[in-house]
Amino acid sequence: MASEPLRCRAPATGTIQIEDEHVRVMRWDFEPGSETGYHRHGWYYVVTPVTDGTLLIEFPDGKTATADLKAGVSYQRFAGVEHNVVNAGTAPLSFVETELKALPG
């Protein structure tokens, strides 16, 4: 991806909770309509939703998908995922993302 498209949405807030040579744990907090911005995951990661909610996932090729999150129900993704994540709901949404640095992409 050459560059990030112009941002038209408010940014989500990412707060690093733990970071060392093995792992990065980051909490993401989204107001309705806010986004992470396009990014690529360099490591395998696990997401644990803190709240229920719906995400809109935008891919660099223009395709989109939605994901319904349930608080406490985790999911995993492999290194190399590239996307923009948007809170598609009407309430604030939060999740904790744990990236395992020992498994590079």
UniProtKB/TrEMBL annotation:
It comes from Rhodovarius crocodyli. This is Cupin domain-containing protein. It comes from the Bacteria. Residues 27-97 form the Cupin type-2 domain. Pfam families: Cupin_2. Transmembrane segments: none annotated. CDD domains: cupin_BauB-like. InterPro entries: Cupin_2, RmlC-like_jellyroll, RmlC_Cupin_sf.
